[in-house]
């Protein structure tokens, strides 16, 4: 794993060519965004056409992982083919004085590369445990133990974070100098992901206890 | 505009080929998801490689629109080229009794096609008004009036919703019959987008009033 403080060398593809001043390439920024938002949109090319599939990613060290049905279209089409995995978090609406400066506060990461499949069943099991425990610490050990068939039916792909970039926007609107005299309210409407009270499955056994760590779950 | 009750004829591409039981194709479902979530992930192919860019979409009738800098990479690369526009909303974590049945509650839409550019300045202005007023009704008329140069610098693309599909998952976990006897808590952790209190721009003029409709804004 490379030094976390070192920049992930931006290639021509990852170099953000619009709004360049919003781009950040340092690993800590990229890690923080990936860790805050498990939902990723994975883009790949299928018969020459782009497809964007939402999926759940998780990060370990300098790699990002996702899983799916071993026989699914996405897992087959993305194995060893170029993909773009994008994670984005909406932080707010930015209401400026001019429609042209309407914006959103956001954090996003794009990762490019050719995913590799994890094939060793023990490594797959270890990674799936990390995936599940990433949501609810200790959950893997509480669950009905995983079977060999389930591990076999689950494909896991991973990408190194070598070609990755982050883009962020925060703070108040930015209007043209002359527009600050225009008499209209401007500001930010903050948006965040909120977690509600856990809803127990009506089919739960009467004596099961909710994991205490569930109430600590946060996202975004 | 086709009858809203008629299904958007699914093509081979849009037919959801995994988890088919989650797929919905009726227009009202597709419209409701697009209207609830402006953030879209647009996938396109650039030099043979997939790129997924987050952007804001809005819907009018049976078309979806997005805008960007006229000279930006995304707007140029997606004009008259195949794209996949995906909108997804995370509704909750589904904690099952088996790791294999871990899931998320979600709503998503995928739209395929070749975007067309809106070129008429009057039509672009009308569409941008709809975009802005979609967030805060009446806002367009309050803002510093748009200039011809701003309209020129803004590209607008649109896709018909003819090749579109929706996918939904809601409700409690689904475990294998034999696993319901396993003594572990199962249930759903609901997640939603929450809107915070508006944050006025510190550079607001002293007498500007916040639009009352801002407090009614909701998303997701």
From TrEMBL, chains A, B:
Sorted alphabetically, which InterPro entries does this protein's record hold? Pyridox_Oxase-rel, Split_barrel_FMN-bd
Pfam families, from UniProt? Pyridox_ox_2
Name of the molecule in the record: Flavin-nucleotide-binding protein
